[in-house]
Amino acid sequence: MLLVSVQVGVPRTQRDAEGRPWTSAYGKQQVDREVRVGRENLDGDRQADRRHHGGPDMAVLAYPHEHYARWSAELNWAEVPYGAFGENFTVGGVTERNACLGDVWRVGTALLQIAQPRKPCRNISRYWRRPELLRLVVRSGRYGFYLRVLEDGVVRAGEEIRLVDRPHPEWTVHRATAARLGARRQPSEAQALLRVGALGDDWRNNVARALP
After folding, report:
1. Is 2-168 CATH 2.40.33.20?
2. pTM for the predicted model, two decimal places
3. In which element (H, E) is residue 175 found?
């Protein structure tokens, strides 16, 4: 696996397609230097909405590099920049279908763990002024996923990502997303997900609320 690109950004006020102001850290910029990764942020990175973003279980957002070619072809979007989906890490060689909850990664000197899937929000559409984009992300399952930081460290784009541990090989990010979305239809699957020790608290709480 490879850390293809690193992005950071801070909240700023911008205007949507209707001219209404909104504040978000969406629109992160690539950094071609070493970046320190802490327990809740990368240096130079912040969240505007701390209720739904950030915190130890959502310290780093990862998005698969492989998805970019698909989006470019499907949306006739010639040059989709890394960070287009709000991610801090653009990662190669891994997607939601083979990344597992609890996977421990060594990247540079940092040690990280996959904590939960990403739940995409409307900022994807608002930032790019593409009203259909959020719906397409949800339909495609190309969400990305969050990492918690087990050991602070320094990373840089181009470094190898090494899989150190895989405690829950049966629980891919894709399966965890499906378990939450289907909690009312298949409560036993959602209940099994709640027994995964590495699952982040935000996803855990939402799954519990979704149960009948």
Report:
1. yes
2. 0.95
3. helix 173-181
